[in-house]
Design goal:
- The chain has 88 residues and is of the alpha/beta class.
- Strands 2-1-3-4 form a four-stranded parallel β-sheet.
- Helix 1 links the parallel strand 1 and strand 2.
- The longest helix has 10 residues.
- The radius of gyration is 12 Å and the shape is globular.
Amino acid sequence: MIVIIDYHMGNIGSIQNMLKKIGAAGTISSDIEKIRTADKLILPGVGAFDQVMANLDRLRLIPVLNEKVLDRRTPVLGICLGMQLMTK
């Protein structure tokens, strides 16, 4: 299952539409358990870095994203700002 991370900003609907167009199933979620069980992740990229990081922190998504990507090596596609969010 592909999970599009919903951090309450970004172009998530457009990403889901493109997945449908290519025949891939994707779900939009900020639910920690859905993210934890995802096979692949997409981190969208619209918004201001500081606000997005604050949203990810408020939604308590940073630890599960670190776990999925760094520890479990789950494939992640960061789009624009989504890619920048994954750097130090």
